[in-house]
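Why run this: before we spend reagent on co-expression, it is cheaper to look at a predicted model of the complex and decide which construct boundaries make sense. The entries below are exactly what would go into the expression plan.
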Amino acid sequence: QKEVEQNSGPLSVPEGAIASLNCTYSDRVSQSFFWYRQYSGKSPELIMSIYSNGDKEDGRFTAQLNKASQYVSLLIRDSQPSDSATYLCAVNRNTGRRALTFGSGTRLQVQP
Amino acid sequence: DAEITQSPRHKITETGRQVTLACHQTWNHNNMFWYRQDLGHGLRLIHYSYGVQDTNKGEVSDGYSVSRSNTEDLPLTLESAASSQTSVYFCASSPRQGDTGELFFGEGSRLTVL
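The model came back. Tokens follow.
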């Protein structure tokens, strides 16, 4: 079982719709959770971090965390073609090996 | 502006050769990381460092080594390149001591081993 699992996609949504990206993790001691966006041929960039159960909103992005279910999600409202990218979920233990473990990413395609 | 740079950006080498990928950051971050990215595997951690003279193995460290002699640089060496090490390599740094999740990535180095 991978430590961080994501559906590889592609997830295709029409422009203006809500895109929902999901991620599960296996290590219960994970403390912090991140979403990175990676455009084709580019390096990843951080778009959201979340540390507590519940929702965290930043502009059109909402991260959701449920530690009991070991589940993290990212919602993108009013999706734009410029949101088309691969979204990487990452988790951090914050103890021991303090380095991010990444999922393999979900490719999002927003259709104009 | 502070930044993180990798070199070379593209390299082709032959099996068995030693290769070093450079990573240089000007943010004065203590934490630095090397990841490789392959289709279907996402980003996998190779080595990481929390400061000068500190190095640690990640999940795919076999065949790789790093050294940290100053804050700015974390070079990654492939002792004897293998075709399985053909990949895109990303260096990253992080400013925080406790939570190292906010990573700033270099532009990547694409390595092909023939």
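The CA atoms of residues 21 and 74 of chain A lie 5 Å apart. The first strand of chain A starts at residue 4 and ends at 5. Bring this page to Monday's planning discussion.
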